[in-house]
């Protein structure tokens, strides 16, 4: 067998490693407990981590959020039936990997769980408010030259395409910053040519081009954080800033229009008719689109409309202050049988009936009170 055939077979037996793109959970799992403790001082990060947790893990966090002492692990395990033991194991593993909770001893030697103090404190701020403002939108003054979301989305996509064009070496009028080149080299997506020292794409770089835009940007940001630490910058502060931007309030004018009775489709048509000229010139790759707006903008406007349509508002009358549970049950059952019961709480002995049925329910209650 010739040496060339041997080397060929050897390369087939040892294929190049696949480019690994960690999600937020995997990235944070690879960091130290000290780094995560610093990171959990930012409400934005706590909210982002909470959203990334498995559904059952989020359930555990909410149940423990206002508990100030360790909860026995056996009690936490009892919250889930044996049929979902696998999901429970994954939830506990995720919470431990991210140091969202830690084992804490209970008097008597029983093992317990307790949420990280910094995570618990700042998740409360993110969910309930209070403390210092954690989003920048509340402290910023109106910008006289503000850009709309559609323009910013198009600009970000244009700049990202410049990075991708640079990687493949295509001729382009605009270059990218030296910092961006440094990150591409650090990530192994590009390397310096041995002859002229120019940056050329690597095998990992070609794999990178096949990823979705969201994964590309996230992988790029991960390596940016690595280079930031080498420059004595705080990776925790950089990551918190990125999530602070993503949680900043936007769409106030859209929400106001929806409250005024304007539909999402009417808003989209208006934005199409008044789009920036650059949006009208954007290349759609030969695919005809019903709107010049980016799909993310369309989805967000429709999502805001859907959020409002989740609720149905009806007028009602509250009945409470029952002297006994039996009295409450009698009136509740009457209203339920008549189909006019809107809501009830047995523990609070409170019920709500439709406004139109109020007189009828009141007459029934008077008859019942006299008879009893």
From TrEMBL:
Q: Care to name a GO molecular-function term for this sequence? A: ATPase activator activity
Which of UniProt's keywords are assigned here? DNA damage, DNA repair, Nucleus, Transcription, Transcription regulation
Q: Quote the cellular component terms of the Gene Ontology held in the record.
A: transcription factor TFIIH core complex; transcription factor TFIIH holo complex
Q: Which domain of life is it from?
A: Eukaryota
Q: Does the keyword Transcription apply?
A: yes
**Does the record carry DNA damage as a key word?**
yes
Domain Transcription factor Tfb2 C-terminal span(s) in chain numbering = 299-366
Entry's InterPro entries?
A: Tfb2_C, TFIIH_p52/Tfb2
A biological process from GO: nucleotide-excision repair
Q: Where in the cell is it found?
A: Nucleus
Classification via Pfam families: Tfb2 (PF03849), Tfb2_C (PF18307)
Family membership noted in the UniProt record: Belongs to the TFB2 family.
Q: State the oligomer form and interacting partners.
A: Component of the 7-subunit TFIIH core complex composed of XPB/ERCC3, XPD/ERCC2, GTF2H1, GTF2H2, GTF2H3, GTF2H4 and GTF2H5, which is active in NER. The core complex associates with the 3-subunit CDK-activating kinase (CAK) module composed of CCNH/cyclin H, CDK7 and MNAT1 to form the 10-subunit holoenzyme (holo-TFIIH) active in transcription.
Q: What does this protein do?
A: Component of the general transcription and DNA repair factor IIH (TFIIH) core complex which is involved in general and transcription-coupled nucleotide excision repair (NER) of damaged DNA.
**PANTHER family documented for this protein:** GENERAL TRANSCRIPTION FACTOR IIH SUBUNIT 4, TFIIH, POLYPEPTIDE 4
Its recorded name reads General transcription factor IIH subunit 4
Q: Which organism is it from?
A: Pararge aegeria aegeria
Lineage, opening ranks: Eukaryota, Metazoa, Ecdysozoa, Arthropoda, Hexapoda
- Gene encoding the protein: jg9660
